[in-house]
Amino acid sequence: MTSGVFGNYQTPPQFLDEVFCQAGKVNPEYEALYSQFLKYSKDDYRQLNEHAKTSFFNQGITFSVYTDKAKGVERIFPFDLFPRIIQADEWAQLEKGIIQRCVALNLFIQDIYTHKHILRDKVVPADLIFSSKNYLKAMLDIKPVAGIYNHISGTDLIKHSDGKYYVLEDNIRCPSGISYVLTNRVAMKRALLETFRKFKVSTVQEYPQELLATMQSVAPQGVDAPNCVVLTPGVYNSAYFEHAYLALTMGVSLVEGRDLYVEKNFVYMKTINGPKKVDVVYRRIDDAFLDPMAFNPDSVLGVPGLMGAYREGNVSLVNAPGTGFADDKAVYTYVPDIIKYYLGEEPILNNVQTYRCEKDDDFKYVLENMQNLVVKPVDESGGYGILIGSKATKEQLAEFKQLITQNRRKYIAQPIMNLSMHATYIEGEDRFEPRHVDLRTFTLLGKDRQFVLKGGLSRVALKKGSLIVNSSQGGGSKDTWVIRDDSAV
């Protein structure tokens, strides 16, 4: 590639490039888009990129980084204007697989907190569940409205060099990132409206109303006009922008724990006009801090008595507390079996092969082959605590071997997957280069409702050669265009 901002573009031969064939030709689905971008000189594109960054800055689209060097530093979320395209037929298959997975995981959570059939049938080891720090005894025999626990799921997918999608992990506690999907689309339209209009791109802007409808569908019995709120830990949380954005776009109140109180097992919001009953809480607070009377007594973020009101069926919590054991990276290895057990179906989407260090054979294999594996803690998120063996020093490998040996339950390992690459604008170089991408999809389950947003957060590993796409680890994002098949309507 020697044209304009795509000058000297080369993809390493072992990886699948979604935009270019190995012969250097543009893949058919990107030809029209590529032609549009070729019209820009380097100076033109640099200005467009700055325009998009200004749009993000003006919207307050930031995230916080928590590392040893940067504690709570606010940064603008990096956004690349060259979108990722997914064709309608490819998306339809993904959507079926994602819904299948989310429905099965919901049945799994329900079973674990009630009858425990899957444990008695020895499909999943009981000690795997009960040793998870995210399993909550307080949830035993609580039956949420419509039996829905994971109302909101973020399913992380990768496209491998074989051209197939694989599920990398499930996120069913408080999955984040949807605000970036919505604001990416706004920034894209502001910067490249004429280009956008030339493609049949599925909308993403209906998500806030779909989320609100999902929340309303699981309101307590007998509540006709539910009062819904978004519960945030506050302005210092890394995802506070998202909490505020969703509350604003849904038209509901954004509250902190101090704004709510419980009286006679009902939840009320303090307002200038007096108390107002709350029926559904979309909580963005971790389980441990949700209710100091039920969990961490030192928490000042939660609402005393909230779990009591929940147990009595007087308020609905989205997502339900205690879902975290089901997105544990060790439980992930059993999801294909979970799908077969509850649905009697073969999994539509494949897992990545995973080694559980708790198992003796897997533990031995991981220690002997760590340089060829990605090692992950089972209960962390945001890309923290991960070791990529091929990038690690001898000292880091030795340190991780010691960490795993001290707490085998805490770690799993996976082969270093060949994540697909995508043309991405690299600031400073003023040109496009291939970078690894994944995709976080967003699914809503409610009473008689299922919804998968047609699009998602395509996350980009901006550091050359890096496989870690998380924003907290230096990643960025792209707008994801799911092309409509109008002939199917």
TrEMBL record:
Q: Which InterPro entries match?
A: ATP-dep_Glu-Cys_Ligase-2, CP_ATPgrasp_2, UCP005522
Where does this protein come from, organism-wise? Rufibacter immobilis
Q: Where is the Circularly permuted ATP-grasp type domain?
A: 83-461
Q: Which Gene3D superfamilies does UniProt cross-reference here?
A: 3.30.1490.270, 3.40.50.11290
Write down a Pfam family by its short name.
CP_ATPgrasp_2
Transmembrane segments in this chain: where? none
Q: What is this protein called?
A: Circularly permuted type 2 ATP-grasp protein
